[in-house]
Amino acid sequence: MRGVIRMSSYSNNRLTCFAALCAIGLLLTFPIGAEEARQEAKPSGETPGPGTLAGIGRLLDDARMLPGPDRLGAAEKAARSLQALLESDIPKEKRCAVHFLSGEIHYTLGDYAKAAKEFKDAGKRDDERIYRDDAEAGYIMALEASGRDEEAAREWIKWEKKHPESPFVQEALTARAWNALRRGVPSEAERILAELSARFPWMSADARVIRAMATIAYIRGDYDETIALLSKIKQDAGMLYLAALSFEAKGMPLKAAAHYREVVERYPHSPLHDPAMIAKANIFLTSGSYKSAAEEMERVVAEASRPDIRGEAMLRKAVAIVLDGDAEEGTNQLRSVAAAHTGTDIAARAQFLLGEILFGEKRYEEAIVEFNQVLARYFEHKLAPRAQYRIGRSLEALGRRADATSTYQAVVAGYPLSPESPAAAYLAGVGLLELGRPSAASPYFQIVLDRYSRSDSAGAIVFASEEHRELVEASLCLLELSYHRAGNLGQLSGAPHMMLQKMPPSTSPWRAYALLIDADALAAQARYPETETMLKRLLEEFPEHNVAVPATRLLAWTYAQQGEDALAIQTEEQMLARYAAYGDQVNLSTAYFNKANILFNRKDYEEAGAAYDEFLRRFPDHPKQLQALYRAGLCYQRLDQAGDAVDRWETLVAIDSTAEISELAWIRSGDLYFRAEHY
């Protein structure tokens, strides 16, 4: 994409329409005096001498019409001629033209720093300020060509303010639009183009303007509009390349490949020749034709002139071979690429891919070795945090959870702004929780929340994607769990509680458990009204989820704590009736036991005794079996059903005579025997 933008911005058309017109116009018409002008121009029909400004200007103009290598050679000849002229005695009034021409020559040669200096000197030497706008424009163009777009953008604005009546204002606006595109601000480019068309309507048909509009449409994702706009202008390398990108984005690889091929065949000296060649080869790679992709990449390696494109093609050829099923050969080629391009981005990616291949084959020990090579040689590369993250995943796959957790922590500490940092933070938190370190885990879950949760104008939490939403819900749940396990209920009920209330409803089980943990913490702090609110929300959002069982049980307990025993029992009974088939033995058994306890505390001994008996019938091996037997005996004792009471207590003693509660049962039984005179 940047290739298209750069090509469009600094094509020969642009130089001809702007800098070239300025320079040639300046050189041929600069007012150096009537006599001198006649001597420089010579009679009509004669060719200016090669040692004159006009002659050198003609050499440069001719050079621009030549293909790549020939163009540079001709431009160097013009540079030598100008240097010879500089060594002669040049009048002061001609110095402006000489520096301007020097700027043009160095621009053509690609020496943009020198070109910028020469254009700046030309502007300073224009005492009559006739051509200063042209010289300053050339200076800004040289800044752009050297990649200093931010600085150039500021200079263009200054230029427009200084030269509002310049005949080249439309060119400045065109340049500003392309500058904005290169800086990644298409909205600014669109605004500038709208201003350009309003002030200079004829510019709407200019090929550079149309190409800029097509580029904006491409960035916006309107590929049909891009293709339609490009059809209005004459074909060139930039137009064909952008059309190819659009067809590829539309899922039309054959048309895209045809356009890339046309760039390669028709424009061998274009800067887009090599990018088009590898883009065409890459279509085979992305479409799954790996064998053809390897062959096409080999062709790029052999024919491309740019070393970086050749290196990229070597890398992708190796990848294609691996994907075609020959992992051994592909791996060998990746090692060759890494060795041949040591210290480069290509080598770093090749080294990382070696680890990825081994990781995919579940050869985790070997993968760790290769990923460590990335960290050792390219620790500042953008792939370094991913390599370290992969080491953590490999360690985890090997069962070395503590080491994996430390590695995830290293990703967060060493590369906090990397894309892998949130995932590493989440896994670090999970690992620390499993290691029994909840206080250490909580900051890592908070990192995920800080990175991926945002608030809208109303204060509600919003997410950039569903993936982010799920990760935030999981992290919030585990953050609350961390505080809960650490006993930090006050902090749990602070910011996490407030965030949970602002989260939009969802069907995620993470949200269900977060609501339950949150409610449990509120209940533990005797904040019963808030507990009720959270539990009712949970039951409303997740009526059929397993979490509804403990939630209903906690709600019943909350009612009981507030003295609303009838409501507590009603809630327990509703839960037992609704969720008995869910198979949650732990929560259901607890619910039966709690119901009996509530009835016992209300001194409703008949119903309480029946409830304890129901509990014992349903859950005969429950850990609270002895307590249920003891309390059932108390119920029957207080109902004057001594025989039933003694039956429960004797059963208790028979089950475990060593339990502390068995001693109490013996005493109670003995007391009843004594009263009944049953010695």
TrEMBL record:
**SMART domains from the xrefs?**
TPR
Q: Note the superkingdom of the native organism.
A: Bacteria
Which keywords appear in this protein's UniProt record, sorted alphabetically?
Answer: Repeat, TPR repeat
Q: Where are the TPR repeats?
A: 589-622
SUPFAM superfamilies the record matches = TPR-like
The record ties this protein, via Pfam families, to: TPR_12, TPR_16
The record's annotation in PROSITE patterns points to:
TPR
The coiled-coil regions, if any, are: none
Descriptive protein name:
Tetratricopeptide repeat protein
Please name the source species. Eiseniibacteriota bacterium
Species lineage? Bacteria, Candidatus Eiseniibacteriota
